[in-house]
Specification:
Blueprint: H1 14-36, E1 41-44, E2 47-49, E3 56-59, E4 62-71, E5 81-92, E6 96-99, E7 108-126, E8 129-130, E9 140-141, E10 150-164, E11 168-169, E12 183-191, E13 202-204, E14 210-211, H2 215-221, E15 226-228, E16 235-238, E17 252-256, E18 265-269, E19 275-278, E20 295-301, E21 308-314, H3 333-338, E22 343-345, E23 347-349, E24 352-355, E25 369-373, E26 383-386, E27 391-397, E28 403-405, E29 413-418, E30 423-425, E31 440-444, E32 448-450, H4 451-454, E33 460-464, E34 471-473, E35 479-484, E36 489-490, E37 496-498, E38 504-505, E39 511-518, E40 521-528, E41 540-543, E42 554-555, E43 562-570, E44 574-580, E45 583-590, E46 597-605, E47 610-615, E48 621-626
Parallel strand pairs: 1-14, 15-17, 16-18, 19-21, 22-25, 24-26, 27-30, 31-33, 32-34, 33-35, 37-40
Antiparallel strand pairs: 1-4, 2-3, 3-6, 4-5, 7-10, 7-11, 7-12, 8-9, 12-13, 17-20, 18-19, 20-21, 23-24, 25-29, 26-27, 27-28, 29-30, 35-39, 36-38, 39-40, 41-48, 42-47, 43-46, 43-48, 44-45, 44-47
Length: about 625
């Protein structure tokens, strides 16, 4: 950096002071360029709604770093210097408020671009005193005593303004390009009829050269190598700052993907010609490796296919790997699907089977598991020797959990797992008693429940849902242990036969056995309520007067018996009757009674029954003991 030399007693010309300021500016500019590069960069300038909200936005203070002439105009008595350009700093110390009026056409919107540029401004005019050689005690006012002010400061300022785009149908409006010399920072979108701008209307301009909060913070945040993907499906593109101008081996970039890929994909940083992205196997992507909004890391390798971006990491996407050939290698999905490292056909002779996996195992270890295709029938004394490490007995578990000789057939596919002593056959042939030990699965209720497709391999089912069941699709001879998880009705019929010959209303926890006496014909056996049906158990006395009316049918859908009690206050005469399923089951008749006489009925309503109370006079009380 240049420095001016002065000497004791020297009369200091103004050019020396001016040159000192100029030298300091040039030195600082060169240091800034070494750190930031020579591309335009902005820091700060956050854009927020006004408070209270309006159709204006507030741009916070900030700085812009941009290349400019050392001096486009003379700097006092120093001449202009337009031959050399340096990185200058433009400062905006105070925020500004910008107006963004709504469009005047229904259904349209406008994108407003907040843009900034650098500018030199001569300012702070002052009426300066000048030396008066004729009368030193009385200085001149202004140069030559002209009485005119002169600017005393040359400021590097950041000029911020808003540029309106063309009004267009909402969703099709376009953000205007920055004016010459300006860079875009943020976009505010305003729709017809909008009266306030919120933070949701403000977005960062694509390609905005913004540092997050400073150089060190930028380095820490990694934003110089991170950008948002602005490309299309299978064609990623991003703009980085400083701009990427050349590709060198080892260059690592990151971007947030705009789209998920569904096939071979390319990447272009800062408009550089797109090059393919390859996976860890150095093969083209197949689809699903890049997820929308996922973080993607790529590294340039000029030796792969004439130059390719290697996908180092991609959050939310599948990771391509080379096929594993050693015991510590990862395997690809293709290898896993084919079980190419665990599935093999046995060789050897009767009782002494062998297996030769690739890669070979170097020692037996508990939990080693292989998918095998047996080449021979079992003999009851069979062993398996893997990778020549020694023969181990082949066992299976019996009903008590004890290990016994394995039973298998030639060409049978099965898993075998080493337990530290023997190879245990996990896919053993079924025994006749196993149907009692099948796991319970849930089967959704339906008008016709298809057990052939929903429960082909179990005998223990739980019926979910609340759809009434009128029939079952099932093969003859099948037997099921059933638990009901909700309230529904089993509708008695010729193909769904209940022991009582009546419909059954289930409750959670009820159980039964279904036995198929013929194809698609079942009988309900051993029906057992999950909750005791005694009246009063887990029930309460409820005043139903406000929800019940005479001459109206009601159905007991509670799954439990209800104890019904009604009475009427009779002034002269009344017939109080109870009908269950349309039949009168109780009746109380009063003729010419004294005023204040009561007419009362009490009856038990079973689950599923329809009940009605008829009365000439209104009821004084209707209570039910129920859940």
């Amino acid at each position: 950096m240049d420095r001016q030399i002065v000497y004791p007693g020297q009369i200091l010309p103004e050019t020396a002071l001016l040159q000192m300021a100029k030298d300091a500016m040039i030195g600082s500019a060169k240091l800034a360029a070494a750190m930031l590069g020579t591309s335009t960069i902005a820091n700060g300038f956050a854009v927020t709604p006004t408070g209270p909200a309006s159709l204006q936005i507030v741009v916070a203070p900030g700085e812009i770093y941009a290349m400019a002439n050392i001096d486009s105009l003379a700097f006092s008595t120093l001449p202009a210097d337009t031959t050399h350009s340096i990185l200058k700093q433009g400062i905006m110390l105070d925020g500004v408020t910008l107006s963004c009026p709504a469009p005047t056409t229904t259904g349209q919107s406008i994108n407003y671009l907040v843009q900034v540029t650098y500018q030199d401004q001569d300012s702070t005019p002052v009426l300066l005193p000048y030396y008066n050689s004729a009368n030193p005690a009385l200085p001149y006012s202004g140069m030559g005593n002209n009485g005119l002010t002169q600017n005393t400061s040359r400021k590097g300022v950041a000029i911020v303004q808003v540029k309106a785009g063309a009004s267009a149908a909402t969703g099709s409006q376009v953000t205007p390009a920055p004016d010459s010399g300006y860079v875009g920072l943020f976009v505010a979108t305003v729709a017809y009829g909008q009266t306030t701008i919120t933070s949701g209307n403000i977005t960062q301009y694509a390609g905005a050269p913004l540092l997050p909060s400073g150089v060190l913070q930028s380095i820490q945040g990694g934003n110089t190598t991170y950008a948002l993907d602005t490309g299309a499906v299978n064609a990623c593109a991003a703009t980085f700052f400083p701009a990427i101008t050349a590709l060198v081996d080892g260059l690592t970039l990151r971007f947030k993907a705009a789209n998920s890929n569904n096939g071979a994909t390319t990447f272009s940083p800062n408009g550089i010609s797109a090059a393919p992205i390859v996976g860890g196997n150095h093969a083209a992507l197949q689809g699903g490796e890049i997820a929308a909004t996922g973080d993607v890391w790529v590294q340039w390798n000029s030796s792969i296919g004439g130059g390719s971006w290697v996908l180092v990491e991609s959050s939310g996407g599948g990771l391509q790997v080379a096929s594993g050939t050693k015991s510590q290698h990862a395997i690809s999905a293709g290898q896993a699907q084919a079980q190419s490292v665990t599935a093999f056909t046995t060789a050897g002779v009767s009782t002494a089977l062998t297996l030769t996996p690739v890669p070979a195992i170097t020692a037996y270890a508990a939990n080693q598991r292989f998918r095998v295709k047996f080449g021979l029938d079992s003999t009851g004394a069979d062993t398996l020797n893997i990778s020549g490490l020694g023969a181990k007995s082949i066992k299976q578990y019996d009903f008590s959990g004890a290990k016994v000789a394995a039973v298998f057939a030639a060409n049978q596919l099965a898993d075998v797992e080493y337990d530290g002593v023997d190879f245990v056959l996990l896919d053993q042939l079924p025994s006749i008693a196993d149907f009692l030990n099948t796991p319970r699965i849930n089967v959704a209720s339906a008008a016709t429940v298809n057990l052939t497709t929903s429960a082909p391999d179990t005998r223990n089912i739980a019926i979910t849902g609340a759809i009434n069941i009128a029939g079952v699709t099932v093969a003859a001879g099948r037997l099921y242990f059933v638990t009901f998880l909700g309230a529904l009705t089993l509708i008695n019929s010729a193909t769904l036969v209940t022991q009582s010959g009546m419909n059954i209303t289930t409750a959670p926890g009820d159980t039964c056995i279904l036995r198929a006496t013929a194809a698609n014909t079942v009988e309900v056996l051993c029906y057992t309520p999950g909750i005791p049906q005694a009246i009063g158990y887990l029930q309460t006395t409820q005043n139903m007067a406000s929800a019940r009316f005479v001459a109206t049918d009601y159905t007991n859908t509670s799954g439990r018996p209800i104890l019904l009690s009604v009475y009427a206050s009779v002034a002269a005469s009344n017939i109080l009757s109870l009908l269950v399923n349309g039949v009168v089951v109780a009746q109380n008749t009063i003729n010419n009674s004294a005023p204040g006489a009561n007419s009362t009925l009490t009856f038990v309503i079973l689950p599923g029954q329809v009940y009605r109370v008829n009365s000439v006079v209104g009821l004084a009380m209707w209570t039910e003991i129920r859940v």
